[in-house]
Specification:
By secondary structure, the chain is α+β, with helices and mostly antiparallel strands. It is built from 11 helices and 7 strands. Strands 1, 2, 3, 4, 5, 6 and 7 form a 7-stranded antiparallel β-sheet that branches. The two termini are 21 Å apart.
């Protein structure tokens, strides 16, 4: 019924940066995988929401385990050690993302993230929900003429991500959620400051001074809230920005390396290859080939 791999490629091509009037999202990746294999224990620095469209498995979140079967939706919060195991023909839809704060809509963004932070880790009978129906509508059908046009994907994806707190049981809507905790707010501000200054070196003392906290307090905040060090976060943000530029610009590799704060093309190439498994030039060529194939 669905073209799973092509659906994944098309969503990653057209629904990466989702702009809205008050809420905007950055999607790190979409997934639509048949017969997913088990994975090892790992953590993310972002939210990942999954829906089981068939098969079975077990999801581990910290020291808790949850059964996976058709109709189950589950959420991985930033910094949580988690794993999918004991799978049997597991078909999974998933999206990894974060909300992007806008100066004129900070309160709405913070309430949305707080709602996500309060929602259930696991819920069943999600298949008939509006959110999952929207999600499935974005997949490519076996008959290409039955698929929605790619031009509709950004809007539908935005609606889907906006509805996820409700899907996972957040009471009411995020509009009425309490404000962000101070720790989460500081982490969000730290990420935004790093992103705004990627083209130059950013130090921990500089960031701490900007946030009006001590270096020790900031380091502890990173370790306890997202289980990531300051240097690791900066590196992650540089790779993320470079990946987006490789996808959506024709800028030379040297220019991308400079704009994302790498000291040399050689260092950029080595680090990008280490984390993405493919050199920058080859990544761009692969992305362009897949994009052209979808159009």
């Amino acid at each position: 019924m669905y073209q799973w791999s092509k659906s994944e490629e098309r969503l990653n091509r057209y629904a990466g940066r989702l702009e809205g009037e008050s809420l905007s999202f950055l999607v790190y990746y979409w997934g639509s995988v048949r017969h997913l294999t088990a994975n090892s224990l790992h953590r993310h620095s972002f939210y990942e929401i999954c829906y089981v469209d068939g098969g079975t498995g077990v999801y581990m979140d910290g020291d808790q385990t949850y059964p996976l079967y058709e109709g189950v939706a589950f959420c991985t919060r930033p910094g949580r050690l988690h794993q999918i195991k004991d799978v049997d023909s597991l078909n999974l839809l998933f999206v990894a993302f974060e909300a992007m704060e806008r100066p004129f809509a900070q309160e709405v963004t913070m309430k949305y993230v707080e709602a996500l932070h309060r929602c259930a880790v696991w819920t069943e009978h999600a298949g008939d929900s509006p959110a999952i129906q929207i999600w499935k509508s974005m997949l490519m059908r076996s008959e290409p003429e039955a698929s929605l046009p790619a031009s509709l994907l950004p809007k539908l994806a935005h609606v889907l991500l906006q509805s996820l707190p409700v899907l996972l049981g957040a009471s009411g809507s995020f509009e009425s959620a309490p404000l962000f905790s101070s720790a989460l707010q500081l982490i969000q501000k730290a990420k935004l400051y790093i992103r705004d200054n990627l083209s130059r070196p950013v130090s921990l003392p500089e960031l701490a001074a900007y946030l009006n906290v001590s270096e020790r307090q900031l380091s502890r905040l990173f370790a306890e809230s997202i289980h990531e060090s300051f240097s690791s976060m900066v590196r992650t943000e540089r790779i993320r920005a470079a990946e987006l530029m490789l996808q959506h610009t024709r800028d030379p590799i040297k220019v991308i390396a400079e704009r994302t704060g790498f000291s040399s093309v050689h260092y950029f190439t080595r680090l990008f290859t280490k984390f993405k498994g493919i050199p920058p030039a080859a990544y761009r060529a692969k992305w362009t080939l897949e994009a052209d194939h979808q159009e």
